[in-house]
Design goal:
alpha/beta; Rossmann fold; L-fucose Isomerase, Chain A, domain 3; 2 domains; 6-stranded antiparallel barrel; 5-stranded parallel β-sheet; manganese
C-alpha cells in the first residue's frame, strides 16, 4: 500500500472558481476512490487550491503526511503559478493528472503547469484521461509503484558481508554515491561473523531444517562434497545471517562467499537462495534480497525490482548464449530463489522440482548447490550499471522457456549442470546485448515493469537504457 497525496488545482478568479468548484471536487472524489479501490491510502488537501496562499498551505498539509507520491489534479483550467508554489512545498515524487474534456480544459492547465516545472528542472510525471478507464488508472499506478520503490530505498541499509569478490569492479560501488543518489547506507560486516555465529545455532534447529529439505527437495548426498553435516552447516549459516540481518536492521544484503567461505567453510548457496525466498523450513517469511559475490549494484537492482513487483528477484550470471536457439542460459552457483522453480505459493510445489547436488570443483569446502530449471513466463530483466561513474538502468524484456526434461538437461550440462538455470529468450539481438551490457550479472522478475523502471530512473536522476525492443 502506498500513501498518495492529492491536491486539486483550480482557477484563480473567484467568480470562476465558485462555479467550477463542485466539478473539480467531484473529479477529486473519483480519483481518490479509484486509488483507494486499488488498495492505497489517499491524503487529500482539505481545500481546493485557487489562491497562492492555498497553494502553499495545502501542499504543506499534504506533505506533512510524508506521501510516497503527490498528485496534482487538473480537471479545470488552473493558474500555473499555483502548481509552482505547491511543487515548492512538495518534497517527494510528483505527478500531474488531467482530464480530457472539451468544456473544462484541465489538459491545458496540466501543460501550462508542466512547462513551468520543466523550466525550473522539477522532475514530474504526467498522466491524462479518466481514472474510471482501466488504462488510465494503470498508467497512474505505474507512477505509484515507482514512487514506492524510490521511497522504499530512502533511509534503508544494505549489509555487505565481505569485500570485493574475485576482482570484480562491477560488484563494488561508492557508498557516498549510494547515499546521495539512492538514500541507501552501507553496513560492512566481516564474513567471519557468519562462521562464528553459525556454530551457535542449536543442533536441533539445523536438523529440523535438513529434514525438511530432505522431505520436500531432492537431496543427492555423495559422502564427500555433500553430507548431512555439510548441509546442516549451510542451514546454520542461513540462521547466522538471519540473526545479523535482524541485529543490524538490514533491508537487503550481499555475501562475498568466494574464495574464503567456498574454499574453507561452505558455500552460501542455501543461505542466499532461501533468503531470497518467501519461505524457509520454519514457515512463510518476507523475502530478503541477497546478492551473491556481495555484488552491490546487483543487490540494489534486485531491491528496486522487489519494491516494484513484490516478488522474489532472480540473480544470475549471463552464463552462455546458445546461438542455435537464440537463447541465453542464466545460471549462477545455486543462488536462484527456489520460488522460481514453479513460482508457486506452495513451497512444496517449488521444492519438488529442486535438486540439492554436491558442489562442484570451484568450491572445495563443499555443501549443496540448489539446482532447478526456472519455470517459463514473461520477464523483465534489468541491471544498474555505471558508465564514467554515472548510473544507468539497463533493461530488456524477455521470457524464461522450458523445453522438457530431456532438452533442459542437455542444455544445462553444456555449462554447470549442478547450478540453477533460467533459459531465457531476450528481446534484444545478441550482438547488441554483448556490446552494450555493463556487467556479468543480471536480474529478473515476472511481468512487465519497464514503465515503472523508467519512472524510477526519472525520479532518481539515473539514465534509463532500454536494450532491444
Amino acid at each position: 500500500m502506498a500513501r498518495i497525496g492529492l491536491l486539486t488545482i483550480s482557477d484563480g478568479r473567484d467568480f470562476v472558481h465558485r462555479d467550477i468548484a463542485d466539478w473539480a471536487r467531484s473529479s477529486e472524489d473519483a480519483i481518490a476512490a479509484a486509488l483507494e479501490g486499488a488498495g492505497h491510502e489517499v491524503v487529500r488537501a482539505p481545500e481546493l487550491v485557487w489562491t497562492n496562499e492555498l497553494a502553499s498551505s495545502q501542499a504543506r498539509l499534504v506533505a506533512e503526511a510524508r506521501p510516497d507520491l503527490t498528485i496534482f489534479n487538473y480537471s479545470v483550467w488552473a493558474f500555473p503559478h499555483f502548481s509552482m508554489l505547491a511543487a515548492d512545498a512538495t518534497p517527494g515524487p510528483l505527478v500531474l493528472l488531467s482530464n480530457i474534456d472539451p468544456v473544462q480544459p484541465g489538459m491545458v492547465g496540466m501543460l501550462a503547469a508542466g512547462g513551468g516545472l520543466d523550466q525550473i528542472g522539477r522532475v514530474h510525471g504526467r498522466v491524462w484521461g479518466d481514472v474510471a478507464d482501466p488504462v488510465t488508472l494503470e498508467r497512474l499506478l505505474v507512477h505509484v509503484r515507482a514512487a514506492q520503490a524510490v521511497g522504499g530505498l530512502r533511509g534503508s541499509t544494505f549489509g555487505r558481508f565481505g569485500g570485493r569478490p574475485m576482482g570484480m569492479y562491477t560488484a563494488v560501488a561508492n557508498t557516498d554515491q549510494w547515499l546521495a543518489t539512492f538514500g541507501v547506507d552501507v553496513e560492512e560486516i566481516d564474513q567471519w561473523e557468519i562462521v562464528r555465529r553459525s556454530e551457535l545455532v542449536s543442533p536441533a534447529r539445523a536438523k529440523e531444517g535438513r529434514e525438511w529439505l530432505e522431505k520436500h527437495a531432492n537431496v543427492h548426498y555423495d559422502g564427500k562434497q555433500l553430507t548431512p553435516e555439510l548441509l546442516e552447516r549451510q542451514i546454520r549459516s542461513y540462521h547466522a545471517v538471519r540473526e545479523l540481518i535482524d541485529e543490524w536492521n538490514l533491508d537487503f544484503s550481499g555475501i562475498k562467499g568466494q574464495p574464503e567461505l567456498t574454499t574453507h567453510f561452505t558455500t552460501m548457496d542455501i543461505t542466499e537462495a532461501f533468503l531470497n525466498d518467501p519461505y524457509d523450513w520454519e514457515g512463510p517469511k518476507p523475502s530478503h534480497v541477497t546478492a551473491t559475490e556481495s555484488d552491490m549494484d546487483a543487490a540494489l537492482t534486485m531491491q528496486i525490482l522487489k519494491l516494484i513487483s513484490g516478488d522474489p528477484v532472480l540473480f544470475a550470471d549471463v552464463r552462455h548464449y546458445h546461438a542455435d536457439r537464440d537463447i541465453w542460459d542464466m545460471a549462477n552457483s545455486g543462488q536462484h530463489a527456489t520460488w522460481y522453480a514453479a513460482r508457486s505459493d506452495d513451497p512444496a510445489e517449488n521444492l519438488r522440482r529442486v535438486h540439492l547436488y554436491p558442489e562442484v570443483f570451484f568450491f572445495p569446502a563443499g555443501g549443496a548447490s540448489v539446482h532447478h530449471i526456472a519455470a517459463p513466463g514473461d520477464m523483465t530483466l534489468a541491471r544498474l550499471t555505471r558508465h564514467s561513474g554515472r548510473y544507468r538502468m539497463q533493461v530488456v524484456r524477455g521470457a524464461f522457456e522450458d523445453y522438457g526434461d530431456e532438452v533442459n538437461e542437455q542444455l544445462a550440462r553444456q555449462s554447470t549442470f549442478e547450478w540453477p538455470h533460467a533459459f531465457t529468450r531476450m528481446d534484444v539481438p545478441a550482438d547488441e546485448f554483448l556490446s552494450r551490457f555493463g556487467a556479468n550479472h543480471i536480474h529478473a522478475v515476472p511481468g512487465d515493469y519497464v514503465a515503472e523502471l523508467e519512472q524510477v530512473c526519472r525520479q532518481l536522476d539515473v539514465d534509463f537504457q532500454r536494450l532491444g525492443g
